[in-house]
Amino acid sequence: MAFSSVPDGFTAWLQDFASAAQQPDQIDEFVATVDSAIIGAIPEIAQDRTLVEELHASTRAHWNAFLVTIVQDYRLELPQEAINLSLSIARRHHDIGVLLKVYRVANKAVFDVLAERTKEGPLPEGLGRDEVLISVWLRAEQWIDDSVEELIDSFTAERASLLEGDRTRRIEVVDALLAGAAPSPETEQVLGHALTAWQTAFVLSASAQERPAQPLHEVAARMCLALGLPTAFTTLPGSRELWGWVSTVAEPDLDLTALEELMSTTRTRVAIGRPSHGPTGFRTSHLQAAAAHRASWNSTTRCNDYRDIELVSLLGEGDLTREMVRRVALPLLGPRKGEQALRETVLTWLRCRCNADAAGAALFVHPNTVRYRLSRAQDLLGRPLSEDATALELALQWVELHGAQALDDPG
């Protein structure tokens, strides 16, 4: 690719300009001027001695390579020193904005240098001083723009590689903790998560039938904000499931009703473990959240607290559990609204410690309606509701969570 056409005398002028600019003292002055502007504008580089040294090497190599090709057909000769600087910025986990700002500041600084160096001296015949400056500047600007495009590729490839490496290390550490391994001195640093405080784990998921309205990690951030919790440490074990842990100094008081609208609008669901303390709590709370997640898989409830469904979570969905549910509550498991109302009333009454007034308040019905339904359920069961009340409550809670249809669907 050739530069835009110029008068015949301009090529010879460019050769003289390049020869003068390649003198050691002129190169040192150029590097000092441009890099001073960059360092003054970017604290991430100014505070890192290694990055400053790599910046000097990159600027020097860029200028030399540009001057060599300035009178030839255009071709970008991206120096290795420039690539090294982009890789170092990536390896320090700086945003790509730092790299882009280097070249944005350099762009203006190079223009100022060229404006100064074309201010005096003889000019090629037929060109004014502004035309000379613009002609040189267009070459420099094209070099800078093309360099940025290539360096973005090297930066993003390196960041992706680093992130994948960090992700792999975090997954290995999480797997070890969940397997019961004791944390090493480096564990908290690898995870970026405090293990010595209270741990509250959650499993955030979206079903195959519903596309989440937001990426799961964004939903997790909004969820923590709604609960008044710090940002969670998260990992993605699958495309539709996210595991998270929140570390807090004190045991959190969680009210999941604050999440119901969020889970509904984002078409996601969450299961939360019991807050537990320390590295052991990291594992325990996750196991509880995972158990609540499995137990509520078929539930219409989008927010499930392990503390509310602990016994049902432990029951699982095995054949013996299904047999127990049928044996204890079968007459109440029909699909009609009347049978559903009986199940809801009996379960609420049992949760309210067999208090009809409290159950009526919870159901927004008169206590006499509760008593009538209890009598009807007792007739269907053929035994007093107080007889083996614990098993009856578990059976009805299992049906509430999984649905009566789950009794005939081993999958």
Automatic annotation (TrEMBL):
Q: Which UniProt keywords apply?
A: DNA-binding
What are the protein's GO molecular function terms?
Answer: DNA binding
| Ranges for domain PucR C-terminal helix-turn-helix | 342-396
Q: Which Pfam families match?
A: GGDEF_2, HTH_30, RsbRD_N
Q: Which InterPro entries match?
A: CdaR-like_regulators (IPR051448), CdaR_GGDEF (IPR041522), PucR_C-HTH_dom (IPR025736), PucR_C-HTH_sf (IPR042070), RsbRD_N_dom (IPR025751)
Where on the tree of life does the source sit, at the highest rank? Bacteria
**Could you confirm whether the keyword DNA-binding appears in this record?**
yes
List, for all copies, the residue spans of the domain called RsbT co-antagonist protein RsbRD N-terminal: 28-170
The CdaR GGDEF-like domain extends over: 189-294
Q: Which family does it belong to?
A: Belongs to the CdaR family.
Name of the protein:
DNA-binding PucR family transcriptional regulator
